[in-house]
Amino acid sequence: MTTLLGYARVSTSQQKLDIQTKALLAAGVREDRIFTDKASGKEAESREGLQRLLVRAEKGDTIVCTKLDRLGRSTADMISIIEDLHGRGVAVRFLDDGISTEGAMGKMVVTILAAVAQAERERIMERTNEGREEAKAKGVKFGPKVKVDHEGIKQAHAEGTGASAIAKQFGCSRQYVYKVLKEASERS
């Protein structure tokens, strides 16, 4: 026998869960099997209701939500949750969207959602790479910061070497040289 479990979420503590919980009850979910959160979807670890629901859900159960965006913080997150549940034999049904991973069409829905998640990940990578290339073109340097020899800078300055020459020698900016020298003078 399928056990219906409900999940409802609003983004702030001021919002009410009434509309979602009424829809879940009307769909046949028992009140004691409705898990709720009043938290932003971005903060998955603060969504205790979702965490309890995911632990509670067993093979053969169906999780019912009113809308897709109530379950995950992003499309990729929501699909990840659905794929995990599907792998455990737990179906997910979205009332307002008319989408379900139940029955013969369920596998197709999960496959389509997985394809959407993959496309979203690829688009994110594409945008990230475009931004990185644009930043490089503007002179932004990537990679670990080079550790500069502060003692060497102080010694070169003490020997009469100018800030520009020190910066060139140690691969840093003149401002950085002045910062190191200022910190050294404040300590002494």
UniProtKB/TrEMBL annotation:
This protein's UniProt keywords: DNA integration, DNA invertase, DNA recombination, DNA-binding
Entries under PROSITE patterns matching the protein: RECOMBINASES_1, RECOMBINASES_2, RECOMBINASES_3
Active site: 11
The keyword Metal-binding belongs to this UniProt entry's keyword annotation: no
SMART domains documented for this protein: Resolvase
Ranges of residues in domain Resolvase/invertase-type recombinase catalytic: 3-139
SUPFAM superfamilies with a match to the protein in the record: Homeodomain-like (SSF46689), Resolvase-like (SSF53041)
Top-rank taxon, per record: Bacteria
Pfam family, one: Resolvase
Keyword Cell membrane annotated: no
Signal peptide: none
Molecular function, one GO term: DNA strand exchange activity
GO biological process, one term: DNA integration
Family membership noted in the UniProt record: Belongs to the site-specific recombinase resolvase family.
PANTHER family referenced in this protein's UniProt entry, alphabetically: DNA-INVERTASE FROM LAMBDOID PROPHAGE (PTHR30461), RESOLVASE HOMOLOG YNEB (PTHR30461:SF26)
Name of the protein in question: Resolvase domain protein
